[in-house]
Amino acid sequence: MKTWNKRTKAVHAGIRRSQYNEVSEAIYLTQGFVYDSAEDAEARFIKSGEDEFIYARYGNPTVAMFEDRIAALEGAEDGFAAASGMAAVNGALTSMLRAGDHVVSARALFGSCLYILEEVLTRYGVEVTFVDGTDLSAWEAAIRPDTQAVFFESISNPTLEVIDIAAVSKLAHAVDATVIVDNVFATPVYSDAIAQGADVVVYSATKHIDGQGRALGGVILGAREFIRGTVEPYMKHTGGAMSPFTAWIMLKGLETIDLRVRAQAATAKSLAAALQADGALQNVIYPGLESHPQHALAQSQMGAGGTVLAIDAGTQAAAFKLLNALEIWTISNNLGDAKSIATHPATTTHQRLSDDTKATLGITPGLMRLSVGLEDADDLLEDLRQAIAGL
């Protein structure tokens, strides 16, 4: 399997077939497992084998298939599937940190990630330092000999800043800090985060992995010692595990993720280029455009610009008018879906931030995040143009 390309791994990695040799992965909808004897039960609680399970909160055959498959796709030794993307972010950070530890994080983050770092971790005595993620000198100044972890989104939500994974990892590893990367916007298709230096990669499986808006899920990926020795004990005892049915949905999503994401990224690039050429908007932000400040980094790190772009209509009133005029694009707050989705971050996903913080992060009143789906590219562009014309 090590020689397989990602598209093949996304279809075949991790399969566990029952005695019936089914083609599609089986869903093991059971909360527990039985033992041949009391002695067998005792032995399994002492040490479970690779395909031995105790309780669905601890592990399940369907969930294990998803964990193995996404780990193979990412190039990680192991993974732990979580109930949601935020359960994965919280689990990756909280499982390894103690009172008095120090974390350095990029400032540009999804609102719920900021909440965990600003409110949850600090509540229990963890010191958090925020930096401009694109400024390597800021990372260098903030990382201390006692820093335990660094955290950042490889592409920030929603302003699409691209963080240099290799450079930040080098600075962190110089003090033996763990590098945790939220890699949602890069997707497993374009990600080489672990090869570039990340120790832990986190995904919201709700996004591109499912890809069809059906279920919540997340996954933490990394070295087997970290996943099974640090993450698993925390997650299984605090209840953040993924359900078997959700794992089956995610397995089905992985089978088509390569085809979907590449098509979405190609459309996103064509839309961004066309909108920028039109010149009717205040700003068009997309890592695949040469005008993007980290365009070269995005190309070397991912080889593509991703499936999401951002546009700015200048004011909230103009943004709302544009959003309300759209016919194909759906107003929602998810991303990575087969349906194209438009979001106004300042009043939804990042509304809890102060106006000063929004301004610092570049979340302007007119900014809209556009997650490109699988519709016809010409139809999506025409829909955007007719909405823009109404301004």
Verbal overview:
With 391 residues, the protein is an alpha/beta fold. It folds into two domains: 6-253, 3-Layer(aba) Sandwich (Aspartate Aminotransferase, domain 2), CATH 3.40.640.10; 257-389, Aspartate Aminotransferase, domain 1 (Alpha-Beta Complex), CATH 3.90.1150. The protein contains 14 helices and twelve strands. Strands 1-7-6-5-4-2-3 form a seven-stranded mixed beta sheet, with helices on both faces. It has a five-stranded mixed beta sheet with strand order 8-9-12-11-10, with helices on one face. The longest helix has 35 residues, at 244-278. The chain is globular and about 75 Å long.
Descriptive terms for the model:
391 residues; alpha/beta; Aspartate Aminotransferase, domain 2; Aspartate Aminotransferase, domain 1; 2 domains; seven-stranded mixed sheet; five-stranded mixed sheet; 41% helix; globular
Query: How many distinct beta strands?
Result: 12
Strand order of the largest sheet: 1-7-6-5-4-2-3
Question: Judging from the principal axes of the Cα atoms, what is the shape?
Answer: globular
What is the element string, with H for helices and E for strands? HHHEHEHEHEHEHEEHHEHEHEEHEH
The CATH superfamily of the largest domain turns out to be Type I PLP-dependent aspartate aminotransferase-like (Major domain)
Counting helices, strands and paired strands, the structural category is alpha/beta
Mean pLDDT equals 96
The CATH class of the largest domain: Alpha Beta
Rg estimate, integer Å: 21 Å
